[in-house]
Amino acid sequence: MEWTRAMRYLPYSEWDAETLLKLQAQATNSSYQVGYHIRPTSGLLNDPNGFSYYNNKWHVFYQSYPFGAVHGLKSWMHLESTDLVHWQDKGLALGADTKYDSHGAYSGSATVIDNQLFLMYTGNVRDQDWQRYSYQNGATMDETGKVTKLDAPLIFAPDHVTEHFRDPQILKHRDAYYVILGAQDKQTLSGKISLFKSKNLKNWEDLGYLDFTDDLMGYMIECPNLVFIDEQPVLIFCPQGLDKSIAPYDNIYPNMYVIGDKFKFDAARMEVSQKQLFNLDDGFDVYATQAFNAPDGKAYAISWVGLPDMSYPTDDENWANCLSQVKELSLDAKGRLLQRPVKAMADLRSDGQVIKTDKPVNGRQILVADADRNYELKLTIKKDQVGTLHLVGNTDLSESLQINFATGNQASLEVNRAQAGKQFASDYGFTRKIDLPKNEDLELDIFIDNSLFEIFVNGGLKVLTGRFFGNLTNNQIALTSKQTDKLAYRGTYWRINHI
Amino acid sequence: MEWTRAMRYLPYSEWDAETLLKLQAQATNSSYQVGYHIRPTSGLLNDPNGFSYYNNKWHVFYQSYPFGAVHGLKSWMHLESTDLVHWQDKGLALGADTKYDSHGAYSGSATVIDNQLFLMYTGNVRDQDWQRYSYQNGATMDETGKVTKLDAPLIFAPDHVTEHFRDPQILKHRDAYYVILGAQDKQTLSGKISLFKSKNLKNWEDLGYLDFTDDLMGYMIECPNLVFIDEQPVLIFCPQGLDKSIAPYDNIYPNMYVIGDKFKFDAARMEVSQKQLFNLDDGFDVYATQAFNAPDGKAYAISWVGLPDMSYPTDDENWANCLSQVKELSLDAKGRLLQRPVKAMADLRSDGQVIKTDKPVNGRQILVADADRNYELKLTIKKDQVGTLHLVGNTDLSESLQINFATGNQASLEVNRAQAGKQFASDYGFTRKIDLPKNEDLELDIFIDNSLFEIFVNGGLKVLTGRFFGNLTNNQIALTSKQTDKLAYRGTYWRINHI
Question: How many Cβ atoms from other residues are within 10 Å of residue B352's Cβ?
């Protein structure tokens, strides 16, 4: 089936319910479906939206196109949780059904205002010539889950931006509301973050572009998010077309962050002494991460595991992508960002088994001969070693997801998915590599969810996330090394329950 | 909206997907929705179907009309589980889309044949004059969840039955397959159980009506199920129009069982020395229970919590009903049927707190002042006492689900839902009562799931199930009695997690 523009933007009311029921069954029955991550009920999932805490529950929404693995007419689908781990699907919350969002209820955020969850999102509109218009709209959700859209947009695009003006994050600071937005400057066609202010949610003052870097942030910034960690501002965003000399990255578009010293809202400036941009995730498939400060002050992030303009093997099954697990953000003593699983993730563990250094057999050490498709593996690999950790391996390890590590003077970790199953995203390579501290033990906390891996390195200093689509009977976890007989490691393996 | 016949039987392909998405969101957002029972994704749920064990998983399907709280064009929706407690929704499995099931894929059963799950169901067909025809059809489900219907019916209705001929349960016995079916005899218009036999699933021999009682089983029997417990046959079925002098019951239609001594398949006879029929559930809302023998020999049952020809308050929200929890069936030393929660139900417990006899305050003993909406309460009430246990009570207990008990020489238990919320099914009364053994401690294992109660009495000798639709802030559990100061009891309360 060819996805014409007319089909992709067909109103949901013109699709038939039998097709939707079959698409929902196809997604849930997929052998590649994830079991403890948020996944689309049907069709395509992209950005997390409206990540928030309201009415004693955590809320997250996702961008959904329910009728296929393509970017069509988008809505917000809603889930809620009491622990950031077990999510209840609450279904369609915000559709594209007004003149200010006729071509998609695009990404946005949520915050509690007057005992309601206030949703702010981008209304995507196309005219007859397919010219795009972007409106920043508001809606409220009450305690029963009922969503009511405001009659008119909160913010219209200012003259100095192109039609690429989206992804509002609404923040309360002192006695005012601020919104940061991804934008493209009309003059320079460069990526910017726009800042607006309002005292009453009605009249919005354009504070201009956020001053946070002297570098050119490509041609567009998407999904800007500001959180405060120990009072330090951390800005997370997705620059498109970023020059790799400014910050290296391997994916089609990166999801970057910068740690500031102070965020001056009214001056539209983030003071940054450490100018470096970092990849939020050093793996293959993370984009559009959304982060927010919960009422307890902690900062949490959740990512789209998927990338724009990319095909995935499940496209053939009419569904695509999932969200990452929720990651708690903190700063270590050296001021470096840490991303860690939330506490309740441990509630999913069962059947824990201790992994310890064993005698090698045929040049290999089998950690778990017959692992589940959903598991967590915490593993400490001793310093001064070189080898490969194979996940989801077949019997002879000719197929596996390879983690190549070196923990000596040359210290690095490389994830290689070339032999992990069906090949995809080949233009962007099959490996991702990070440096490690020299001559130190390597601490890995690895989550496998059927077709998804999330690897937390050294307490969350680095995270590598990606998808793989291999043989479902490949369930060996093993270590290989030229020096197998001196490999030293210890750890724990747990089966992880479905949510 | 008036549900005309034309609307109820509109093909799913003529409903629009936006309507379905909104109905799904409405069902999941309902404040009355259950949290640890199987519930409809949207619309109306009725009979459990195809309860089975296949490919290392438990399977159950339910009769679904997805577009409203009415009995319209029915399909089978599928769920699977590894523990009979945590169920994964697998969506639409069997729709009404052939000439042999054009007006509904009605109830049926499943058994493993040749590494596939063989589904046998009633195809409901109406002709232009709305004359009904019932076909007993077959389909197979493979390990990926793909369902393939057989080209032609397995069994056509024989001449001696009316068009009321449905609900096949397929059983393997020695080297042949047998099917028992609910039927209405054409001559007498009385309720019967039909028995068929086949060696090859193609040619079916009509063995006639099952001889298991001399009494008239009303005008129709629905949903017959045969299980073996300790080699004794137990026949579970739903006689409609049963004379209450044969077996008393309070609901519009009962769900009865009879314990036999021996089941002679080829003779179409169940030897029964203890002729008495019993209500499988002594509460308000259980019907169409489906039971089967698992590969381990154990017998499990799951019930529709809902009744035919009945309205429920959630009809206004366009959804209705749920399934019961799975009940393990056994026989006690006296040969009496026991129904008990399965072992894994205990995995849902959290925050257990011990309940013990306390001093009464204002004539009442508060067991839990602020209970959850999802909980289990195990309570032993000592013998020789009279009182009322209030569940989901408001502050002054003017509203509550009342369990009136007497454990002395007059020994009985009565559930009264008159003050438990919105009134419904008023024609059938607000109370259900069972006798208890005299002068014995009363053992209750009570499950509350927001708008559902399941009360297991004395180790499962009796079960009382029902719905209630009260104020969601009514969360007091308390005991009242004229002799409050001598009430003696002990127990445990647990919060029960959502599945």
Answer: 11
